[in-house]
From TrEMBL:
Organism classification: Bacteria, Pseudomonadati, Bacteroidota, Chitinophagia, Chitinophagales
Span of the signal peptide: 1-27
Organism: Pinibacter soli
Entry-linked PANTHER family: BLL4482 PROTEIN, BLL4482 PROTEIN-RELATED
Residue ranges occupied by any Cytochrome c domain in the UniProt entry: 43-182
Protein's recorded name: Diheme cytochrome c-553
UniProt superkingdom: Bacteria
Keywords, alphabetical: Heme, Iron, Metal-binding, Signal
Amino acid sequence: MKKITLAITFIAVAVAGAIVACNSSTAKTVSDDNGPAFHYTKEQAEHGKYLVMAMGCSDCHTPLKMGPMGPEPDTSRFLSGHPMQVPVPHVDANALKDWVMFNHTNTAIAGPWGVSFTGNLTSDPTGIGYWSFNQFKTALTKGKFKGLDSNRSILPPMPWQNYVHLKDEDLRDIFAFLKSTKPVHNVVPSHIPPTNFQ
């Protein structure tokens, strides 16, 4: 009788564990090389998506394509940055003294700083797949390229200065959403300094 009761108890605990696991709001665990693993919930990722959309991140980081009504976001490349197969047009250095120009995908921007390209924010390794939360926070609040203190500053038109006062909880939620995105393999070109213009 004790064996039967023990077996029933064991089965009940296993079933309860399975139910909890299936209903858990944990979306993913991401390893963080600057501390403990980064755990986040489905609710955090959903709030992060809300913030990403409200802050307009997709406006530049999702390339445009031509649709029936004109340019529209290419949802198959959501947040993947400047498409690596799109060539960079010839840039006249003289024109950049007074103008800022965007290309047809809205992901390559030429100005007095040269040409900058919007980054890949997807969970792919060519995006932020290997980034730690600390890197992400450094990029958004200190304006450092790839979130590394020793790197150059992030170039215009990225408005990182607007994000310096974001709360850690909001930064974590945004990071959670980006880590949950569909990975898009896309190696974004390096910045072109104005001295390299012809």
